[in-house]
Amino acid sequence: MNAKATAIKVFRRYALIGLILFYLVTLSTCFSPWTGEETGGMAIISLSLGGNGASRLVVDLLTGGGPLGLDPEFEDFEYDLFLFSNGSKLGGSYRLNLVKIAGMVSASYELSGAAPIGDYSKIVVKAYSVSGSVRTQRGEGTFLSSGPPIEITAAGIVYSGSPSLLIEIVSVTTVSSWSELKDHVDPSGAFGSTAGTRPEIFILKPGPFGYWDIFSTFLTPSVIQVTRPITLRTEGDVVTLIRDNYNGDEFFEVTLGGSLTLETDGGSLIMDGDKTSYGNPFGSPFINVQNGTLTINDDGIILRNNFRDIGGGAVYINQSDFYMYGGIIEGNEVSGPGASGGGVQVITGNFTMTGGKIINNISGSDGGGVSIIGSALLPCTFTMDGGEISGNTSSGPGGGVILLFQSKLIMSGGIITGNTASGGGGVRLDFGMSELHINSPAVPGAGGNITGNTDSSMVPDNVSLLGGAAVYHDSIQLAAPFDTW
Questions:
Q1: Parallel/antiparallel/unpaired status of strands 134-144 and 168-169
Q2: pTM of the full structure
Q3: Which 8-state DSSP code applies to residue 41?
Q4: Residues with Cβ < 8 Å from 363, sequence gap 6 or more?
Q5: Contacts for 384 with CB less than 8 Å, ≥ 6 apart
Q6: Other CB atoms within 10 A of residue 189 CB
Q7: pLDDT truncated to tens, each residue of the chain (485 aa)?
Q8: Other CB atoms within 10 A of residue 121 CB
Q9: Residue 433 and residue 449: Cα distance in Å, rounded?
C-alpha cells in the first residue's frame, strides 16, 4: 500500500471516530440538559446549552446566531436563577456560573449552581451586564412545565412536556401610565415606531393615582397594538388598568405575529372593565389576538368585570395561540345575538391551559366560561392539563365549555365544576364534528375531572352532545349518558 493510500485510510478512520464522538456529545447536550446532585437542602444543577437537534429541551444562549454559536457578549454576563410558586417569587436569587465546554466543532456552554430542592411553577434565568457596582439586566429566559409543577430533585429537574429555555437579549423599561406604555409599544408611538422586532420587558408601576385610567377618544383610541414580543410585568406592585366611561376599545390588539406575555414578580396586574358602573353595550375584550400569541404566566394576573356584546368577554383569540399557565379570568359577560364565551372565545386557534381559573363568567347565548369554534379547514383545539373552570353560567348550552363545529377538547388534568347551562352544564359538544377526549394520567388521581355541573333546572348535567359529536376516554368512544368522570 503506497503512502498516499495509507494517509487516506488513516484520515477516514479518525474522521469517523470524530463524527461518532461529536454525535455522542450532541446527544448528551440535547437530551440530558438538566442534571444535579444533592447537597444538604440544596441541589447542584447543571443546565447544558449549545446542543443541536429538534428534541433538545434547553435552547442555546443566543442573539441570533446558530444553535452551536454564542454571542461573545454572553460570556461577560452574570446569571441569576429565580424560583416561583403560584405566581410568587420565592426568596432571593441563586447565582449560576457560565462554563465554556470545548467541543470538536465548536464550544457548548453550561450554567451551573445550587438551588433549593422543591416544587416550582416556573424558573427564570436573568442575565446581567456588570460595570463596577452597577448590574443592568440584559437578557432573560423562562422555563415552564406543561403539566405538574417543576420539581428540583437531587437527580436534576423533573418537568412535564417539552419546555425550553431561551435566554435572549432584551430591553427592560419601567412605565407608570397607559400613554407611556403605548408610546413604547404601539408601532405608532415615538419609541414603538423604531423598536424593530427585539423582545422588550415593561415593568408596570401604579402611577400617581394608584391605577391606570384607560380612556379613549375618536382621535386618540386607547388600544395598544402589539406586533413584536412584549412582556408586561409587575414587581411587587398592584397595578390596575381600569376602563374609563364610554371606552369601547380593547386594551391590546396582538397581531402580525406579535406576542404578549403577562406575568408577575410579586404583586398583581389587574384589568378591570368596570361593567357595574359602565356596561358599554359595544364593549371589546381586554385582549384581542389576531395572528399572534398570548401567554398568561402567573396567578397575579386578573382579567375581570368586563362586558362585551359579542364573543370573548375578556379574551378573544382568532387564528392564534393562547397559553394560560396561571391567572384568573372572572366576572366577565357577553350578551347579545350570537354572544359566546363569557370569559374566553377561541376561533380557529389553539388554547392550552395548565393552571389558573376561569370562573363566574356569563354568556347570554352559549359557552359561559369558554367557547371553542373550529372549521373544516382550520380546526380548533383546547388542551386542558390543569386549572379550573367553575361557576360559569350560560343562558344557552355549555356552562363551562362549548365546542362548536370542528373543535376538540383534550383533557388530561384540571377540573370543570359548578357550571350551569340549558344543556351541557359542564361541556357541550354542538354542531358538527366536535370531540371531547378524556385521557387517563400516568399518576392515578391526577387527571381531569368534569363533575358537579347542572342544567338550568339544577339537574346534574356534566356533558351533552348533538349528532356528529363524540366523546372518548383513552381513545375509546363512549356512549351516552355521560354522568360522571
A1: antiparallel
A2: 0.83
A3: T
A4: 313, 333, 334, 335, 339, 340, 341, 342, 371, 392, 393, 394, 395, 396, 398
A5: 353, 409, 410, 411, 412, 413, 414, 416, 448
A6: 18
A7: 555 455 445 444 444 444 333 332 232 222 234 554 555 566 666 665 543 322 222 333 433 333 345 566 777 889 998 988 876 788 788 998 887 766 545 556 677 888 888 888 888 888 898 989 889 888 888 887 766 778 887 777 777 765 556 677 788 899 999 999 999 999 887 676 666 677 899 999 998 888 898 876 656 778 999 999 999 999 999 999 998 766 778 999 999 999 999 999 889 999 998 876 555 555 789 999 999 999 999 989 999 999 888 889 999 999 999 999 999 999 999 987 778 999 999 999 999 998 999 999 999 999 999 999 999 899 999 999 889 999 999 999 999 999 999 999 999 889 999 999 998 999 999 877 899 998 876 555 556 789 999 998 888 889 988 877 888 887 888 776 665 55
A8: 22
A9: 23
C-alpha cell at 234: 409587575
Radius of gyration of the chain (CA): 25
Cell of 411: 383533557
Identity at 57, one-letter amino acid code: L
Name the grid cell of 179: 400613554
Rounded Cα distance between 316 and 442, Å, is 33
Q: Which of 260, 250, 406 is nearest to 323 (CA)?
A: 260
Residues in the chain: 485
**DSSP 8-state symbol, 424:** -
Q: Who contacts 245 (Cβ-Cβ below 8 Å, separation ≥6)?
A: 215, 277, 278
N- to C-terminal Cα separation, the chain: 76
